[in-house]
């Protein structure tokens, strides 16, 4: 089967999203659906952390449940009976007060970490790109690689000489020049800007360049 | 993929965090010298011992233990079951039909393999694409496609995105344009083995 892969016209980088592509006249994909998809793809689901703590909870509950059965049957506990928690705590405070304090602080820090995981946005290193038909997310790694490539071509540099790093709203391109050779920073910056403007990422990425103070021989 | 409830994930983490934080604060306060919480703990210890003594298991299961600990065991069992269900219902949502339509002449079903093969075939010949993976999943009770494109290191994502968009529009023409399938295009970087590696060939 062959699919037509004719390109659609280039649009300006800042043109608003048109959901009805040139090929379709009716019932485009609703903007809210794509908003939802893109939000899910650019933010962490926190599933990993939730699963880790569900497993911890599961293990703790399984152990406490087993010990509770032993206590209900009036048997000797396997390791530690849940009915002895408070008396152990009281005796521990009088004999090992520092240990209880340390455990309390560690537990409190773990709780704060959990709350931070729960309430921070959890953005993944991704940018979205507007398209007339599909929802697009691009890994920051791809953006950095393309920037490094463009900058390297613009400056006629060797592969190891350019390093790019992309954050949410800015990118930094680090150039290590060959010793004794000047680097045309302006042209590198212009090339990176052209690359970024050509794709029109959201949120927009502003590039900066940095030339390392010490060059490298044989680069 | 689309069934894990993100709000519940965060709610679970927040509640667990609050409980863990409260336990930590309690331990710190008890351990601090001259605190009233220690005497409170002592009296609580006495009350726990009393209530355990006052609630013996009776009937044929009389073992000398308290039914409160039996209740605790049942509670723990419930927690274990809920946690197991929560863990194993994650990552669902994949489907194998992208189009189901009841017509007067009969029912039409199009397998998601059709869209997957079509998109993979149309894009995998590109030199700036190293691999294409397509999955269909359920979103808001309707099918949706996810196209994962791995591009070669250093290539600009723009031409790839345009080509993929064109391919999807071609697919629209085949599948019918009255109800478009939401498509997510995910452009990811070079090989996982050499993350961020630049290409040797310009």
Automatic annotation (TrEMBL), chain A:
<keyword id="KW-0472">Membrane</keyword>
<keyword id="KW-0812">Transmembrane</keyword>
<keyword id="KW-1133">Transmembrane helix</keyword>
<feature type="compositionally biased region" description="Basic and acidic residues">
    <location>
        <begin position="1"/>
        <end position="20"/>
    </location>
</feature>
<feature type="region of interest" description="Disordered">
    <location>
        <begin position="1"/>
        <end position="27"/>
    </location>
</feature>
<feature type="transmembrane region" description="Helical">
    <location>
        <begin position="49"/>
        <end position="73"/>
    </location>
</feature>
<protein>
    <recommendedName>
        <fullName>DNA/RNA endonuclease G</fullName>
    </recommendedName>
</protein>
<feature type="transmembrane region" description="Helical">
    <location>
        <begin position="99"/>
        <end position="119"/>
    </location>
</feature>
TrEMBL record, chain B:
<feature type="transmembrane region" description="Helical">
    <location>
        <begin position="12"/>
        <end position="32"/>
    </location>
</feature>
<keyword id="KW-0472">Membrane</keyword>
<keyword id="KW-0812">Transmembrane</keyword>
<protein>
    <recommendedName>
        <fullName>Alkaline shock response membrane anchor protein AmaP</fullName>
    </recommendedName>
</protein>
<feature type="transmembrane region" description="Helical">
    <location>
        <begin position="67"/>
        <end position="88"/>
    </location>
</feature>
<keyword id="KW-1133">Transmembrane helix</keyword>
